[in-house]
């Protein structure tokens, strides 16, 4: 019998149950979610995509991710920072992305804030990874197995406040906790998921920026 939040397939491999919720999730769960990331462009992309997810399901954003990358210059924040009102209108007319003006404007604003941060600190990654939670710090959720509620953590609250202070938008504590999960700042593959020890090993050997 499967444990809560875990599913064992016909080959006897056990993973987080959410992996089975959509055709795109197996690859995302097995090879991307939780893998530590130190690339500035990828970190900026994930913050922006988590912002676009607000009020939507992650699968909606994941299915449109390549379109977002095309629309936002591969999430090169130096280029996105130069976007103008003309670009906003172009993006608002693009049916392949989420056409929400506030989120589009936020992505451009956050690109400018990312440029400032890198110019000041040398690396977006180094600044963000400084908010990695302490070992054993757990999120505030109703049920870890199903990720009910709106998970946050003390670290995601700290990161959210620090980003907002610097002028970033669509970076609430729940959004930042999802960011930390995806970028490997925490390992939230459930105990029993075959990916959990793999991610732990990657985190052990990951060179913090």
Automatic annotation (TrEMBL):
Keywords attached to this entry: Metal-binding, Zinc
Keyword check for Zinc: yes
GO terms under biological process: base-excision repair
Residues that bind Zn(2+): 16, 29, 189, 193
Source taxon at top rank: Bacteria
Keyword Transmembrane annotated: no
InterPro entries reported in the protein's UniProt record: Adenine_glyco, DNA-3mA_glycosylase, DNA_glycosylase
GO molecular function terms noted in the UniProt entry: DNA-3-methyladenine glycosylase activity; metal ion binding
Protein name: DNA-3-methyladenine glycosylase I
């Amino acid at each position: 019998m499967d444990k809560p939040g875990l599913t064992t397939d016909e080959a006897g491999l056990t993973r987080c149950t959410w992996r089975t919720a959509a055709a795109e999730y197996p690859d995302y769960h097995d090879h991307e979610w939780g893998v530590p990331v130190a690339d500035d462009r990828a970190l900026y992309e994930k913050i922006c995509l988590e912002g676009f997810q607000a009020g939507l399901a992650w699968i909606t954003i994941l299915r449109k991710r390549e379109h977002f990358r095309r629309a936002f210059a591969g999430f090169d924040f130096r280029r996105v920072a130069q976007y103008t009102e003309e670009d906003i209108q172009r993006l608002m007319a693009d049916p392949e992305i989420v056409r929400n003006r506030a989120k589009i404007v936020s992505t451009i604003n956050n690109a400018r804030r990312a440029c400032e941060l890198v110019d000041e600190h040398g690396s977006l990654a180094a600044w963000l990874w400084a908010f990695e939670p302490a070992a054993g710090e757990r999120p505030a959720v109703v049920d870890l197995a199903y990720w009910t509620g709106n998970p946050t953590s003390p670290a995601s609250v700290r990161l959210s406040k620090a980003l907002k202070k610097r002028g970033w938008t669509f970076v609430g504590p729940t959004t930042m906790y999802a960011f930390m999960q995806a970028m490997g700042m925490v390992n939230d593959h459930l105990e029993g998921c075959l990916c959990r020890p793999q991610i732990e090993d990657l985190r052990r050997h990951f060179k913090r920026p």
